[in-house]
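**User:**
Make up any protein.

**Assistant:**
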Amino acid sequence: MAIIHDWLVVSGGAEKVLDALLQAFPHAEVFTTVYAMPQEERGRLAEHAVHTSWLQRLPRIRDHYRYYLPVMPKAMARFDLSRFDLVISSSHAVAKGVVTHSRQRHLCYCHTPMRYAWEMRDDYLRDARYPAPLSWCAERMLERLRRWDAATAAGVDHFVANSANVAGRIQRYYRRESSVIHPPVDLDAFPFDPSPRDDFYLAASRLVPYKRLDIVVEAFRGMPNKRLRVVGDGPERARLEALAAGAENIEILGYQPREVLRRLMTQARGFVFAADEDFGIMPLEAQAVGTPVLALGRGGALETVLGPEHGDAATGLFFADQCAESLRAGLEAFETLAIDPQACRRQAERFSTEQFWSRWQSLLTSSLS
């Protein structure tokens, strides 16, 4: 078996899924465009053969890998996978574009069709703030990537979506049906803790524009009596620190090890999630430790968080619009709820690693028979 991953530079939700796949398939070999993940974040990858593309040889590739996105499809196509019976691509960008032959089965675990080439194209171009000539080139590049992305869907034998949300995109953009297997939550790494909570809220993610940590910071600036801690690092960090400047109730903590993140999740009054995410694993990790979630009422959170209409099974609340005013109103309503930490844990258990493996086992049995 070969498992294909877009790139291995930082550890995020897609990499947690890859780790679960490697645990389920310990003899698999891994192929990726760039492998520059810090040693302490590699986990099971350290036990597997990892094959990289020619991009790996470029200087400072870890810092600049995103700039090579236009040539990554060619890098993927050059991998020789002819000796493998089964190919699983773990793809949110280019991994599904590997070349397979008619005697192989290619299953694509799709985290999402390439969002910056489809529905997030305009947001990407706006946030990049390219001057006029570069903006035109970037628009043409994204158009070519979109055509390539649609065309290479034909090389996949079976799509597996990480959520019903993404299954809808696969149908819309690729005109393909898909099975849904949600990413797993590592329940052992986020054990349940019913201890009394502290009086602060937590937001955590990679600090990139579409995660919309800016509206979280803006919302808490307008509520100086409520405390916020933000965990994560990325290109948005300097802007978020500037937004939070002078607000004594807001702390931008930067990157934190998993143990610190888990402790903060356990202590927080609630976990705040403002992204329109494909799936989003962190709200489930928060629920695993017993912490309720205040989330934007769009995207994958609708599949992982249970609102007040679920009665005693409720695990959080949704706010309607992706803006600070709506989040503030949601937070006021959130504080009137009495959510059972045990209900949060039970919801997280529905997304366990065992459930993930069981669904994969059923899929492989049916698709390879």
In short: DSSP finds 14 helices and 13 strands in the chain. The two ends are 16 Å apart (CA to CA). The CA atoms of residues 165 and 269 lie 28 Å apart. The mean pLDDT is 93.
